[in-house]
Amino acid sequence: MNKNSSQTEANKKWQDKNREYTRYLNARSAARGFIRNKATLDDLEELRLLISEREEKLKDN
Questions:
Q1: Which residue blocks in 1-61 are alpha helix, DSSP H?
Q2: pLDDT at position 1 over 70
Q3: pLDDT at 4
Q4: Are the C-beta atoms of 41 and 32 separated by less than 8 Å?
Q5: What superkingdom does the record give (predicted)?
Q6: How many domains does the chain have?
Q7: pTM value?
Q8: Would you say 44 and 34 are in contact if contact means Cβ atoms under 8 Å apart?
Q9: CA 51, CA 56: separation in Å to the nearest integer?
Q10: 3-class secondary-structure state, position 39
Q11: Percent of the chain at pLDDT above 90?
């Protein structure tokens, strides 16, 4: 087994073991990419509202 396939195997094993965290990281990356590269002014306005609502909800808990 070469170095790359060993690393790929190790990555897959880690991802399988940490599925929920992997989903979190993927979602966070997608959100950041959307904001940086594709979001319109209307999108950003809506996201600000959603972020404010989420912050309030987290503060209440």
A1: 3-17, 19-37, 41-60
A2: no
A3: 85
A4: no
A5: Bacteria
A6: 1
A7: 0.75
A8: no
A9: 9
A10: coil
A11: 90
pLDDT in tens, 28-53: 999 999 999 999 999 999 999 999 99
Amino acid at 9: E
- Name the pLDDT band for 9 (thresholds 50, 70, 90): very high
Q: Identify which of 31, 36, 26 has the alpha carbon closest to the alpha carbon of residue 51.
A: 31
For the chain, the average pLDDT equals 95
Q: Which two tokens stand for residue 38?
A: 């594709």
CA distance 19 to 17: 6
- Provide the token pair at 5: 């396939």
The answer to whether residues 35 and 47 touch, using CB atoms and an 8 Å cutoff, is: yes
Question: What gap in Å lies between CA 38 and CA 44, rounded to an integer?
Answer: 10
> Would you say 17 and 10 are in contact if contact means Cβ atoms under 8 Å apart?
no
Q: Say if CB 61 and CB 53 are below 8 A apart.
A: no
